[in-house]
Specification:
The protein is mostly helical. The chain has one domain: 3-Layer(aba) Sandwich (Rossmann fold). The chain is built from 6 helices and 2 strands. A two-stranded parallel ribbon has the order 1-2.
Length: 142
């Protein structure tokens, strides 16, 4: 869901260019599409996105500038694959970007109902809005 929101919202900004990819930290569901409730939730909010599950690997660090983790477990799994401090610096919990968040984790709504997915979408939208605002700000002049 976060990839759908970020891909859509980042397409609305001129700079920086943001290329969004999504992967999990386990091998579950590799090659499968998005969970039907997740996809229905982002589509009903107006987001269009294609998704096929794949697994994050240590090689992913070389291709990515920023890695957004949804929760502490995923964060720890990603950090465990890091090869050095330069990789560690690329990993951030998505909700850490949102100063209004009451938690630094996006809960996994898997196995819950539609309301849980909608609640997660609201969290993601807020965090993505703050992230994009931060990324598009001009650096201070020296």
């Amino acid at each position: 869901m976060a990839a759908a929101v970020l891909a859509h919202r980042s397409s609305e900004i001129a700079s920086p260019t943001i290329i969004v990819s999504s992967s999990g930290t386990s091998s579950w569901h590799i090659g499968e599409g998005a969970h039907p409730l997740s996809q229905a939730t982002w589509q009903s909010a107006g987001y269009r996105h294609e998704h096929s599950a794949r697994q994050f690997s240590a090689e992913s660090f070389a291709a990515l500038d920023l890695i957004l983790a949804m929760d502490q477990s995923n964060y720890a799994n990603i950090i465990a694959l890091a090869t050095g401090p330069q990789d560690h610096q690329k990993v951030v919990l998505l909700r850490e970007c949102d100063p209004t968040a009451t938690s630094d984790e996006v809960p996994d709504p898997y196995g819950e109902g539609e309301d849980a997915y909608k609640s997660v979408l609201v969290m993601i939208e807020s965090a993505v809005s703050h992230l994009l605002r931060e990324l598009t700000q001009e650096p201070p002049q020296a």
